[in-house]
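Table S4 entry, Lactate utilization protein B.
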Amino acid sequence: MSTDDKAAHIRRLLDTEGDSVQANTRVFNQGRYAATEDLEDYEELKDRAREIKEEAISRLPELIEELTEAVEENGGHVYLASDAADANRYITEVADDAETLVKSKSMTSEEIDVNEALEATGVDVYETDLGEFVIQVAEESPSHIVGPAIHKSREEIAELFNREFETDEPLETAEELTMFAREYLGERVKEADVGMTGANFLVAESGTMLLVTSEGNARKCAVAPDTHIAVSGVEKVLPNFEDLQPFIELIARSGTGQDLTSYMSLLTPPVSTPTIEFGSDAPLSEADGDRDFHLVLIDNGRMAMREDPELRETLYCIRCGACANVCANFQHVGGHAFGGETYSGGIATGWEAGVHGQESAGEFNDLCTGCSRCVNQCPVKIDIPWINEVVRDRINRGEAPSEFDFLVEGLTPDAEPGGVSLQKRFFGNFGTVAKLGSKTAPVSNWLAELPPSRWAMEKVLQIDRRRDLPKFADETLQEWFLAREGLSPTEADREAVLYPDTYTNYISPERGKAAVRTLESLGVRVLLPDLPESGRAPLSQGMLSTAREQAHETYAGLAEHLDAGRDVIAIEPSDLAMFRGEYEKFLPEASFDRLSAASYEICEYVYGLVTNDPEKTDVLTEGPGRVAYHSHCQQRTMGLGEYTETLLEDLNYDVLTSTVECCGMAGSFGYKEQYYELSMDVGYELEDEFEAAGQRDRTVLASGTSCTDQLDVLLERKPHHPIELIAPDLG
């Protein structure tokens, strides 16, 4: 899809589906916060769930054999399908004589397009999950792993049902729509020859399956017809019955915010209950109990994913949809933009790359901004942003090279091969751009704003001309620092390295100066060495070789300071997230542990200093004053936002902390032409909160570069970093 086509597609979804998606995902998201808050052992449950999935995937071949033996001993059949075509061939053979088949919701069945395969052989297929039924009637694809029809409003569903079913009385209310679907689908269940379900989990030792539903339709599909086909990916197999416990606690809370879903059905098929002859007066005791059960286990790329060290974690996914519900971009456009052939949301990149190929993943992969908000919400702690970045790197390397790539490879300061788009190369090498821009400022700023320049940037780099560009400083933070005298070692209580991130050094040195003044006033001798970029910029563009190279160079530059026992302080949360998170992928374990343990966010560090010595608070600029504070996404993921809030409150500021979790800018994302409207749509919520009646006099504070850039556009008040507010005024 071209840049223009992608932008148009997003605009259309913002207009037609955005409101419904946002309302429904917010209900799920807020429900999850409430439901998990009540779990005292929430983190322990997640750790246990991950351990179980790790073990299950490592033992998968033997568990499949054990499950097959258990099901066959119970009287059922197991078929291991290599791919979608193989699975559909077997399923259509089993359903060969059937006229009607009823299904419960199953993303795996969506993955293999089994409905189309069955209908091609003359079988009438009916989805019995209400959301799936709506989608089937509308001839659309699901927009969410858990809620397939969240993009449709009640009014749209009513109009759809009234048109398609020509009801005697028009359906209007949610109750009327639900009752109509229940009665209509109830008749389909009664007449069905075959029932099909998915399986949330399969127990290898017993052949038991767990079905988790809100409507009870899966149970009906499994036991009402005399033939039951269960379709499941091989990754759903767990070793033991006891292993289900943490998942039962987590899946509903993570997905829909319920403590438990309405129906948790444990079946060991073929079940022993008699088949039901609807309309017959014969007692059930005389009914035929002969049942046929077929478990279709589907590989379709999963075993290859198991051998792929970067995609392997995808198989830990329990399909709860939490990563979609918490994602700001998904909340605004849903899975019809943030999704591929089958799967949607943050984890979809891994699934689509594994089962459908990188081309499918490439259509939406860039909608993941790496904000990391999904990491803490995943019930099995999958590093979803890393999977997205790895696949992005592979997509970049799969791009068709152009005849000019030899020039690009020779002239750009990155470690990437040809084929990476110019847009990604530009943002991945932004540190070089900023260094050049600062050296030539203010001329560079004037040239960049000229209409021909903005036109060229939009045409060549797809940088939206409506977005304000950052202004490069003509004196960098490092130049200012070298020209002054700081604390000597004898005057200081401790020493720390202030990391000169690209934005602070070349664009907003005032926040760096405020950090230096604050630290020195608190007795910290500050060092500001010449260090390379952290690797965040190329990582966000899927340029992993460059990110890895910069990570090693940065660590090498910090090693002597770590040896000397100095702390490392970051102003930009995304750089600290590299030191405490992504560097684990790039550095030897001992090196990562050393840097991670010694790294701090600036307000976290200041909070620690004044907490240990409350008298030092006197050197900071205190309130009273009213502030509106927005915490950076990665800062929240690391659990650091509270340090800034508490520090401000202790200094007598009246703090309004934004409940809006994402500003929408997300680094380079908001500059890109294809995503400008989406970025702004997300940002408008933050604008509404800070511009609400009674809040407009508050000083606006934001911890991250992206956040200040976005707020600067949205508000008439100029935002500042919190350290600028509390820094001592030394005249």
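The chain has a mean pLDDT of 93.
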